[in-house]
Design brief:
Elements (H helix, E strand, L loop, with lengths): L1 E3 L5 E3 H28 L8 E5 L4 H8 L4 E5 L3 H14 L4 E3 L8 E4 L23 E4 L8 H8 L3 E3 L2 H14 L6
Parallel strand pairs: 3-4, 3-6, 4-5, 6-7, 7-8
Antiparallel strand pairs: 1-2
Helix pairs in contact: 1-2, 1-5
Length: 181
């Protein structure tokens, strides 16, 4: 079958489906890699209450797909956060909310760029979290972000951003049909 675009260009439908998959792959792999990284290191997000700072959406979707009871989401752009929650609600009705309180969350994730520079403010105060919370950061460098250092000093279990990449590599290998190195 052939799809004809408004510009008059045509493309084979199976080729177009592959292009759409390639475009979607990075965000899907981010979320799945993040959850796999948690699982491999002993944290199961199933039935957890999670809180995500930053409205990219991939991590929140993956945590919900892994069985989280509720994901609260905040972003400096409240409209963007509401849009992500609306989309998540289509797939997981009633399990995502804008700005849900994070004081009771078992998993709190920084999905913002805050922490890439040593002068960045913390995205949230880890001292306000439940004592059982795991504090995760998707930032890979520096490994010890200011948030993770503060959380570790306060006695929280921390999860580094590079664990997401560690678990993304096999997903990309599978996606591109590559054998392990």
């Amino acid at each position: 079958m052939t799809v004809v675009f408004e510009s008059g260009l045509a493309a084979n439908r199976s080729w177009w489906a592959l292009v759409q998959e390639l475009v979607a792959a990075p965000s899907v792999v981010d979320g799945v890699g993040f959850v796999n990284g948690l699982s491999v290191r002993g944290y199961d997000p199933a039935r957890a209450r999670a809180f995500v700072v930053g409205a990219g959406g991939a991590g929140a979707a993956a945590v919900l797909a892994a069985g989280a009871e509720l994901v609260g989401l905040v972003d400096v752009d409240q409209g963007r956060a509401a849009g992500v929650v609306s989309h998540l609600d289509e797939h997981w009705p009633g399990r995502a909310a804008v700005g849900a309180a994070f004081g009771h969350a078992g998993l709190v994730v920084n999905a913002t760029p805050l922490g890439m520079r040593s002068v960045d403010p913390l995205p949230f105060d880890p001292n306000e979290l439940a004592s059982h919370a795991v504090v995760a950061d998707i930032i890979m460098r520096p490994k010890g972000t200011p948030l993770l250092r503060a959380a570790a000093e306060a006695g929280y279990r921390v999860h580094h951003g590079h664990h997401m990449l560690d678990e993304q590599i096999p997903l990309y290998r599978d996606f591109f049909c590559l054998s392990p190195a």
